[in-house]
Amino acid sequence: MRKTFFNACLSCLLLLFFVIGSGLFLFAPSNGAGTTTVGVFPSSVTAILGQNFSININATGISDLYGWQFTLNWTARILNVVNASEGPFLKSGGSTFFYYNSNASAGQVTVECTLLGDVSGMSGSGVLATITFSVISSGQSSLNLYNAILLNSNEQAIPVQLSGGDVYALSPPDVAVTSVNVSPIVVLPGSSVHINATVENLGGFSEIFNVTTYANSHVIGVQNVALNNGSSQTLFFTWNTTGYSEGDYNVSAVASKVPGEMNTTNNVKAAANIVTILYDGHYVAVTTVNPGKTVIGQGYSTNIKVKVKNYGIYTESFNTTAYINNMALQTQEFTLESGAATTINFTWNTAGFVYGNCTISTSITLAPSETNNGPSKFVYGVVILTIPGDINGDGTVNSLDFHIFASYWLERVPPAPANVDIGGYGVVSAKDFHIIAQHWLHSWKG
User: What is the side-by-side strand order in the sheet with 247-249?
Assistant: First the structure.
């Protein structure tokens, strides 16, 4: 019977037997009009890493096409096939059988299709198949067509000329600030600070974008940058500190988001060093106060870390005092050069203090002959003094506290919160459990 050659899934093998037996040449030379061509369209594709794209396998100048087969290969480390689907050309002539088999590690797909039944083949031009790829790495990959077999409705080979294509897989748009340097880092108001910001185009496209430098939230300057992919540039800014008050400033640079950019975490970079603007006089201030715990059991101790900085132009000798509810805990004396900072450690033994919120504060006192222009007092806020074992500070030792304790069992501090380390042993352990058990269901609130 006519066309038994094309029945169902045996079509591929029978096609191959036919070619071998007939001795026909299926690849015609490039010699002008009347030549049937099968090729990749478009022949050049620019794709982005992480995205999908599709190409068509087109046939042109064909007569009485009844069945076809081809193999397409590519660079496996760059592309991976997602799907192959039949194009409209052959199936517009009737029912078809379509099949493909891909090999990701080899970077290869074999696709075949045939009409079914006693029908005439299709003539003209059209899409045989559509192949969809995912881009898994940047680089260039050729798309090579080979082992193409085209048969007409009389089971005769159709000579064909093949043409492949190229895929240029690019990294997605991505601009980054890679470094920010400042000099000098200690100045008087009105002095200039020089800022160098290096930006790089990490993506696969040429980009035009803005780079803005900041001192805290204040804009220092904006520059427009044009960078080819893979290139970098160092920008120079000058910050005139006139009008800025004394204090510490974080200098940063921000690259504006470019179209299509998904990774914006590297668009921002802060300088490693802060810039300190001094006061033209005496100015020593407490900048931070950090108690070791925010909830502590009565009778146990915790550290209070106080950071002090000299914002004045003179070397200063001064006293720093820590307070609990306005009661002086301890006073320490220090000497600091201009622009220098130090951290002072105070120890608070809570024995004798009553349950409840305890306000932590500190103050600075300069030598009697000097007047401090800066704030002389810093109030941190409250630390809850409670029954040992009351981890959440609600005034009662109960299952809520045990649940918190159990969730950090045998963890060191840090990363475990210091409040869970009830006894201050450095690790959440059976010693802390013993404290909870001793005070189980004790409460100081009603």
Answer: 186-187, 275-277, 247-249
* Separation between Cα atoms, residue 374 and residue 351, nearest integer Å: 34
3-state class (DSSP) for residue 343 = strand
Q: Are residues 163 and 59 in the same domain?
A: yes
Per the document, the length of the chain is 446
Q: How many domains does the chain have?
A: 4
Stretch 297-313: mean pLDDT, rounded?
95
Long-range Cβ contacts of 411-414 (<8 Å, 24+ apart):
none
Average pLDDT of the segment spanning 218-229: 97
User: How far is the C-alpha of 408 from the C-alpha of 412, rounded, in Å?
Assistant: 8
Q: Do 171 and 230 contact (CB within 8 A), yes or no?
A: no
Nearest to 72 by CA among 163, 3, 186: 163
Q: Are residues 90 and 54 in the same domain?
A: yes
User: Do 65 and 179 fall within a single domain?
Assistant: no
For 109, the 3-state DSSP assignment is: strand
- How many Å apart are CA 80 and CA 142, to the nearest integer? 13
Do residues 155 and 32 both lie within one domain?
A: yes
| 23 pLDDT higher than 50 | no
Looking at the fold, whether 26 and 93 belong to one and the same domain comes out as: yes
14 pLDDT higher than 60: no
- Domain of 259? 175-277
- 312 and 259 co-located in one domain: no
| Same-domain pairing of 13 and 159 | yes
SS3 content of the chain, % helix, strand, coil (to 5): 10, 50, 35
Q: What percent of the chain has pLDDT over 90?
A: 87
DSSP helix/strand/coil, 137: coil
Matching residue, tokens 């400042």? 182
Residue where a domain terminates, one of 170, 205, 233 = 170
Q: Say whether both 296 and 396 belong to one domain.
A: no
| pLDDT of 44 strictly over 80 | yes
